[in-house]
Design goal:
Low-confidence stretches: none
Largest sheet: none
Structural class: mainly alpha
Mean pLDDT: 92
Shape: globular
Helix content: over 70%
Strand content: under 5%
Order of helices and strands: HHHHHHH
Distance between the termini: 45 Å
Radius of gyration: 13 Å
């Protein structure tokens, strides 16, 4: 096996491959994908992050929340607000979502 290199896939714009892999990834690789997508302004990277929000794994969701905040897209606010409503009593996740929403808001003020 040659290994999994999400940074390379993001740089090459192979978002369909990343998105198809997301469902199969363990938490650590999922976090790697989120981190790689955070630095991209491509629609495909954004879509991959949104798909990670649907995963059951909490650590994957937390990584995607942080990455969406770093991207700063205003359209991510809707997804994050929905996740906020669905996160129940998870205070750490709610705080991460609030931080990401603040990043998005400040990104659009500048």
């Amino acid at each position: 096996m040659f290994g999994f290199h999400p940074d390379k896939l993001v740089k090459e714009g192979k978002f369909e491959k990343l998105e198809s892999e997301v469902a199969k990834l363990d938490a650590e690789k999922c976090k790697q994908v989120a981190e790689a997508c955070a630095s991209s302004n491509e629609d495909g990277a954004y879509n991959v992050l949104v798909s990670i929000l649907d995963k059951e794994d909490r650590e994957c969701k937390m990584a995607a929340i942080k990455a969406l905040g770093n991207q700063g897209r205003s359209s991510a606010s809707t997804h994050l607000m929905h996740l906020m409503d669905a996160s129940g009593t998870d205070a750490e996740m709610k705080k991460a979502i609030e931080t990401a929403l603040e990043q998005i808001h400040s990104h659009h003020e500048s």
